[in-house]
Amino acid sequence: xxxxxxxxxxxxxxxxxxxxxxxxxxxxxxxxxxxxxxxxxxxxxxxxxxxxxxxxxxxxxxxxxxxxxxxxxxxxxxxx
Length: 80
Hints:
Elements lengths: L2 E5 L2 E4 L10 E6 L2 E7 L2 E7 L3 H13 L1 H12 L4
Antiparallel strand pairs: 1-2, 2-3, 3-4, 4-5
């Protein structure tokens, strides 16, 4: 489960067994969790985060979308 970014206390990462799903990222902080799809960037699921936190996370995912997609494809190229 590689971390791809630690930012403002949020951990952005992939689960290595999810390579058959569309590209996405998981985000955890202090017992809260969320999942965002990359194309288009949108919330897939969330538990515990407040709306303002989700907006902040979504903004970061949009900002890093290309970098995250490249990391996704690099990570999963050998896992398919």
